[in-house]
Design goal:
heterodimer; A: 210 residues; alpha/beta; Rossmann fold; 5-stranded parallel sheet; 9 helices; 5 strands; 56% helix; B: 248 residues; 2 domains; 5-stranded mixed sheet; 10 strands; binds cobalamin
Amino acid sequence: MLDLQPLHDAILNGDAKTAKALTEQALAAGVAPLKLVQDYMVPAMGEVGRRFECNEYFVPELLLAARAMKGALELIRPLLTASGVQPVGRVAVGTVKGDLHDIGKNLVAAMLEGGGYEVIDLGVNVAPEQFVAAVKEKHVHIVALSALLTTTMPSMKTTIEALKQAGVRDQVKVVIGGAPITQRYADEIGADGYGESAAGAVALAKQVMG
Amino acid sequence: MSRQRLLLVACRVFERELEVLARTAKTELQLHYIEIALHQQPGAQLRAALQEEINTVPEEDYDAVALGYGLCNRGLVGLKAHGLPVVIPRAHDCLGILLGSSQRYLAELEKQPGTYFQSCGWIEHLPADRTLRPLAAGEGLSLNQEELVARYGEESAQFLMAEYAKFTQHYKRLAFIATPVAKADERERKAAEIAQQQGWTFERLPGDLTWLQRLVDGEWNDKDFLVLKPHEKVALSYGDGLISAEPA
Ligand code: B12
């Protein structure tokens, strides 16, 4: 059997070239694409997240690891689609109105993609109406909001209110995250879930979708 | 009545402004600075550093401790008063304090979310090649190109520089908060230069030092300041006051 631990390590070490080469090898050897994602890539990103939280990894390591994962994922995605594997769900992600921080949001998006979700990235400074439109037009199952400023946290609340106003609040799950956010804040504004890290985003999405 | 003896532990970003305000302070003021931790540290590290300061204040020498800090990424949440009261502005961060109110800070962000704020302290302490070329700091983020190459290799360094360049792609305006301090003109020119290099518009926002002034003068109304009693700690409050006190 092909030893795939090096694929895990290549992603962990942010080595995009090796990750890609190993993925090609594994696919050529007939390893199931989904197995590569679930058993090696997602756990590698989980470990990346853990190291980031313990201050062993910093933003550059995160960016390099995400690039390595995305590169490998590009080889796998067409195969998944061809074999009829449906996305687990559709998620709209965005940084809330007034806030332009997107490093964390991008990582959350990458993790969700790795976890088999179809991700619609609405970008930064996303107005409540844009989230509403994504729910109405793109029929997303989950709206994932990010905020890095205590000054823009209230935009999360206004976004949830806008979803209610538009009558679509019960069609979607809302999850929130970002450095200043807490579970208590999520409860306070009526979000369905709170995630402390990008690594946990997939588990969180699964949990809220029930 | 003798003047209140106040120890102000402040972020170095306020050094120039506090220099001016200290001259006329109505308290018997002692200033103690902590190096700028702005974009460098997660909230927990700031909290640990401030807690250490609070715990080691010679308490017989002062009547109260004041903090020249905002909530700063929840860095102040959980902070405990020791034997003396601790006074904290109910501010999001230094920018709101220098603008004189959270209301004005929020209005400026609302007007143009793509605003990068600067003040004399920012210009002085966050050197341009570290905060501006990648326009970000923090461990790893503050490395310059040569350092990135040394740490990650040529190819990865190039990728990282390109990513860093994207960090500021949505910014439109540099807002310089102008305060009446030493070398303010020079700092303002520098800020205008940065705006030009980045292709942003430059705007001068007159600073308003009344919030900081009330902090050093001992005029702590409940609306703008939280006063922790001994053995209380800071909690996040989700209403208007931003922070509140709870039993430690
Ligand atoms: C990098 C950075 C910047 C970069 C942003 C680059 C970019 N494109 O994103 C630059 C330099 C441009 C910048 C600008 C500003 N910044 Co800034 N910035 C930071 C810094 C250092 C790191 C943020 C970061 O990217 N962390 C790394 C990522 C991976 O972590 P994260 O975002 O927390 O995300 C993780 C989790 O939270 C979670 N997560 C995030 N979102 C979500 C969402 C969901 C659904 C889930 C499940 C999880 C999740 O997953 C991620 C990975 O695990 C922080 C300080 C800090 N240490 O947090 C300050 C900080 C956030 N910035 C701050 C400030 C004040 C500003 C400015 C206003 C400064 C100015 N002079 O104008 C502007 C903001 C303008 C605006 N309108 O947005 C303050 C905020 C204070 C406050 N009031 O709350 C901080 C805390 C710094 C400080 N101590 O003063 N900043």
